[in-house]
Specification:
The structure is a single chain. The chain is mostly helical. About 50% of the residues lie in helices and about 0% in strands. The longest helix is centred in the middle third of the chain and has 16 residues, at about 30-45.
């Protein structure tokens, strides 16, 4: 395709770029499966709130979790579940403090 829109590109750019750069390699399908699995974790929650919560967590800056109405932040239970699932997948945000 000519392009894509991917909300998780905002929090997972290195892995997405790696697939872009190596899409002909033998492990490209496995890379895509990993990206899909990470996206699926975020999709379980309100997307913008989940993305901002991940940034807040890995940057150690809780201000990132703030949202403007009508959007609402994740509940404590949602935050814990999201972060636990991402940690289980080995998800990281290199370059951010935390």
């Amino acid at each position: 395709g000519a392009g894509c829109i991917s909300a998780t590109a905002n929090v997972n750019p290195a892995a997405i770029h790696r697939l872009f750069a190596t899409w002909r390699d033998a492990d490209a399908d496995a890379q895509q499966e990993g990206l899909n699995a990470t996206r699926a974790v975020f999709q379980k929650y309100p997307m913008i709130a989940a993305l901002k919560q991940a940034i807040a967590h890995w940057s150690a800056d809780p201000g990132w979790a703030r949202l403007r109405p009508p959007l609402v932040e994740l509940t404590e239970a949602q935050k814990e579940a999201l972060l636990a699932e991402l940690e289980k997948r080995g998800f990281r945000m290199p370059g951010l403090q935390g």
